[in-house]
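Section handout, structural biology tutorial.
Before the tutorial, make sure you can parse a SMILES string by hand: atoms, branches in parentheses, ring closures as digits. In the record below the ligand is S-adenosylmethionine, and the chain has 336 residues. In the tutorial you will relate the predicted structure tokens back to the input. Do not try to memorize them.
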Amino acid sequence: MSQNHPYRSLQLPGDAPFELKPSPGKGWGAFATRRINRGATILRERPLFVVRKSNEQITEEDVRTAFQHLPPSAKQQFSHLRDNACVPFTHMTEAFAENSFAISNSVGPQASISPVHGLFLLHSRFNHSCIPNSKIPNTNNEIIASFATRDIMAGEEITFCYNTDFECRNRHERHQALRFICDCKACLPGTPFQQLSDMRRTFIRGLQYLTLGKDLNGQKQGSVSPIIVDPKLKKAAEDFSIPLSSRLFYNLLVMYLLEEEGLLDDFMAERLHPSILNIKALFITERNARIATLAMAQETWLEKFCMALRLYGRADVADHAVAEGLRKLQGLSVEQ
Ligand SMILES: C[S@@+](CC[C@H](N)C(=O)[O-])C[C@H]1O[C@@H](n2cnc3c(N)ncnc32)[C@H](O)[C@@H]1O
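Predicted structure of the complex:
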């Protein structure tokens, strides 16, 4: 049956390092046909068409109009996207939502004002994993590209993570967002890895709360917080009066937990590393600055964290100014 499946008609680039084939329990998926080295490009893809609206605003009419403007061959390609292994699509908006990606709009007078969504025939064949082996970073044009975040062996399924904040979400929360049951290593119930994974991701969310002063949705948690249970600590986080020393080892601990979870890819490291270096550069008290420098000179994230723990409970001359600066940035009154 899979021989005459419509996906067989989807055209892959000649040099694509993957093939499309059934993925048990997930419909079809993309599988490496040769080794793909960490960092290598897997696929660059143009959208079949775009809709210049946010997800919630896209109507049946928008998708139908865009579809009607397509040449016959592109129309045919779109019609190959049957049901994505879930319930058959009854609306064009469903087919669009299941096969589209938000893309940047950095060109022209409307740059970054209006959201744009593109229909991508091939990237939307990739299945999800909470510990993926590829990533599709944001770009500043309509072409999207996927990269291997670790070495991928021939025969291995290529996956990416469908949501951006899953490193802070436990299994239950991830499945609610996905609306399907993922069976990756972090989701297989009853395994020690899965239990540790939930602990790590909850811990990462708490550490982020402590350093950013707010939760994933940008909001403060209610007075009974399931994340930060100590009211004094919660208030200190929300007032940005967490001392520099704690900020350093909270951030280093996040890096270590991400690494243990298999999520510290080069993109993630590149995004998070600069803010840790900034924290290190802010220490004024000489002994603290020395320990922070020594910590950052260690080889591994665990070693950096352990060295930074020597700062535990130590105030720094810069603490007050850092807290004031952060409050100013957030538009809060400066004196607390
Ligand atoms: C964008 S499509 C991915 C390609 C799809 N498997 C297909 O056959 O066209 C997303 C759908 O694939 C399935 N899927 C993706 N990742 C999955 C996973 N980890 N576990 C189970 N189903 C998955 C779900 O039905 C989801 O709604």
